[in-house]
Every structure is written in C-alpha cells, then in structure tokens.
Design brief:
The protein has 275 residues and is of the alpha+beta class. It has two domains: 191 residues, no CATH class; 76 residues, Orthogonal Bundle (Arc Repressor Mutant, subunit A). The chain is 44% helix and 16% strand. The chain contains twelve helices and ten strands. Helix 1 packs across helix 5. The longest helix is centred in the middle third of the chain and has 22 residues. The chain is globular and about 50 Å long. It starts with 5 loop residues before the first strand and ends with a helix.
Length: 275
C-alpha cells in the first residue's frame, strides 16, 4: 500500500459511541473514571440510551454505528448522515449532553496525536508509524494484523487505510473486520492519561522562566492557536507571540500550520522540563 493511501482522521460519532460503552462497562475504560462519575449525573432522561448501550454489548461493536470519517475533522452532522436515523438521534443527544462540554480538550489530544504521527510518517515512513501505534497492531505487505484471540487480518492494499486516534477506545485498538472501502484503525491517542487532570503550573518552573511562560507551557500540552492562548491568559495576541518566540528559540515550543490556522505545541524538551 502506498503512502498516498494512508490518511489520518478522528470521529466525534465514534468517540460518543465508545463513551456510551464506557458508561456501560467503566471497568474496561478505567482511565476515564473521572469522566464516568461526571457523566452518570447527566445521563437521566436521554431517550434511547438503554437501547444504544445494549447494542454495544460483546467484544465486537456494530460497524453501522461507526462510519469511516470522510475528512480529517468530520462534522458531527455529516457523520450522522451515515447512521440510521433512530440511532443517529440517540448519538446526537448523547454527544450534546456528555461529550460536547469536553470536546475542546478531547479534540486537542486527538490533534496532538495526529501532528506527532504525521511528522513520523513524513520523516520515517508508514512502518515507523505502526511500530509504536499499539502493542497489538502490526503491518506487513499491505495487511493489517490485530494480534488478539482470534487474530484479525485485513487486506487493505487496494483501498488504503484511515488511522483514527481515539480517546474513548482506550485501552484497545479496533479495526473494521470487513471493510467495503477504506479500512479504519482506531487506536488510543497519546496523552489520554492526563486528559481529565486539572493541572497547575509548577512553581519551580514559574520561578525559572516566568509565570506567564510557564502557564503557556502548561496550556500547550495539546496544540493551541495564538488566539486560544491569548483568551486563556487574558493577554493580547501580540504578547502571546512574543512569549512564543522566546520559548521557540529555547526549543520548548514548536509551531506548525494547519490550513488557515497556526498551532503551537510543547516539545519533548519542554515535557522534560515540566516534569
């Protein structure tokens, strides 16, 4: 399979469906227990939730509830057009009630994962991407292998593959067993372990580089634009740009362009400093 047949995307529908599965079986998604405790206070009165939850029982999840994303960041409405109307209505209600309040931080984790793996793909090729994608996943000669009992093998040489980082699929990787078009591999995104933490700026770091820059590094655990950072800090975009310039010169921040947006993210050097 050529490089052109591999692309990245993430799915608000898949996140919502797997979040419902997390409510159904929280022990299998232990990293999300803080969210589960929050969500359980808000699930009452969602019509059809019990029926949707029942469909998710068992080790294999229904493919008709998990459409392959058409674009890198699909719109919820666009994805739901590929789902039968009754289930689509339930998924929309669940998303609005349980996922939307946290979607910005979830999307930031997914964006950060895509940015890191896309850079690996460009620099080292597809084999390097699969090397640390998930312990159960391997790739060889156009065939995707999920090492689970029973072992799943999917030939994707003709149609290609969509790599979808996910928050709520943790700790497993998931593949479509019988793809009729592009195959899809859902895998746990990097950084899930800190998703529900309320982090504070380390005092020692603030003393070292200044409170504002230390706060910037804390915010940049996931990609953010200059505008986002300015709003979070309560300063001007120009002030943020000046601080980002200093941090970039110290190799603590990297900057990349995504379409019309410029996003900043912490480097591994900054991660080490933060810890």
């Amino acid at each position: 399979m050529g490089l052109a047949k591999v692309r990245f995307a993430y799915s608000p529908v898949f996140e919502t469906v797997m979040a419902v599965d997390g409510l159904r079986n929280p022990g299998a998604h232990a990293v999300h227990l803080p969210w589960v405790r929050w969500a359980r206070e808000r699930v009452d009165g969602i019509p059809g939730l019990d029926t949707l939850s029942a469909r998710l029982e068992g080790p294999v999840k229904p493919a008709d509830l998990m459409p392959v994303p058409d674009s890198r960041i699909p719109d919820l409405d666009a994805e739901l057009r590929h789902v039968a109307q009754p289930e689509a209505d339930v998924i929309r209600r669940c998303h609005d009630r349980l996922i939307a309040p946290h979607w910005k931080r979830i999307a930031a984790v997914l964006e950060a994962d895509i940015a890191a793996r896309a850079a690996t793909l460009a620099d080292k090729g597809v084999e390097a991407v699969f090397h640390d994608l998930h312990p159960e996943v391997t790739w060889a000669d156009g065939e995707l292998v999920l090492h689970r009992k029973p072992e799943h093998r999917v030939d994707l040489a003709e149609h290609g593959l969509v790599l979808c980082p996910s928050v709520f699929c943790w700790p497993k990787a998931w593949i479509a067993l019988d793809p009729v078009g592009q195959g899809v591999l859902r895998y746990p995104a990097r950084g899930i372990g800190t998703l529900w933490e309320e982090r504070e700026t380390p005092h020692d770091l603030a003393a070292l580089i200044g409170r504002t820059r230390a706060h910037l590094l804390t915010l940049l655990a996931a990609p953010k634009s200059t505008t986002d950072l300015a709003a979070a800090l309560g300063v001007t975009a120009g002030a943020v740009s000046q601080h980002i310039g200093v941090l970039r010169a110290a190799r603590l921040v990297t900057t990349r362009r995504e379409g019309r947006h410029v996003l900043h993210m912490r480097t591994t050097r900054a991660d080490a400093l933060m810890s």
